[in-house]
Amino acid sequence: MIQPQKIREFCNDIIALASGDFSQDFVNDLKLFPFSQECFENWHCCLKEKESDLETKDDFCNKVKDNVESSYGRQLPGFLHYGAFESSAKYLIRKLEEPALEMQKEISDKVKSVLTKLAYKHFAGLPNLLKETKVIIDKIRQMQEHEANQMIKTLFRMESMIYTQDATYSYRLELMEDTEEGSMHINNKGLMSTESVVSLLTTHLKIYYKIASDRLVDLVPMAIKYYQMQESITKLQGEMFSILQKRDLVDELVEEEGTAAEKRRNLIERRERLNKARLALIKF
User: Quick one: average pLDDT of 23-41?
Assistant: First the structure.
C-alpha cells in the first residue's frame, strides 16, 4: 500500500537527518548538522569573547573590585579572600547561561522547521496524515525543548558550585606562571593595594574561567544534540511507526484530498480505456 510506504520513507529521511547522512538528496535548508555545527562554533566564539572581556570590560572589573572591597575583614592586606573569588566566578558563569539557552531555542526552532518541511514533502496530498504529523512534531518539540532547557539550567547550577580538581587548577596555575604577565601577578608577594589584589584575583579568575569554559564548550552542545536532534527524531520515528500498527487510524489518515483522489481516478479510468482500445485493435 503506497501510503504506509510514504510513512516509512519519511522515517528513513528523518533517521538520515539525525545521523547526518549526506548521501541523502537533501537541500541545504534541510541539513541539520551544518546548521548546528555553526551554532556550536558561535558558542565557542562566545566563550572566547567572554574570556577576553575579563580585563577589558569596565563592568566586570568594577564587579571584581566591589567583591574584593566587600570581603575585607580580618585578613591582612595582600591576602585574597575566597569569597571574593567565588562571587566573581559565579558572576562570570551566570553571564553564559542566557546565550546557551538562546542557542538551544535557535536549534529547537530549526529542528521543528526541518521536520515540518519533510512532512510536507512526503505527505503532500494526504491532509489528514500531514496534520497529524505536524501535531506530533509540535508536541515532541515542546517536550524536548523543555528537557533541553532543564538540562542546560542543571549544568549551570552545577557550575555555580565553583569546583575543579586541585591537580587541574594547579596545572593551569603553572601554565599561567610560565607567562611573564602571569608570573608578575601571581608571584608578587609584597604588600598589595586594592588594585593589585583585583589584578591578582582577575588572573585567578582567568584560570578558573578557562577550566569552566572548557567543560561548557562541549557539554552544552552535547545536551542540545541529545535532546533536540537524537531524542526528538527517535520519538518522532516511534510515533510514526505506531500509526502503522493502527489499521483504522491508517485508513483515516491516508485519505487523499479531493484533487489528488480525482486525478488518481482519472488516471485509472484512462488506463482502463487504453487497455480496452488495445484489446479491440488486437481482435481487429
Answer: 86
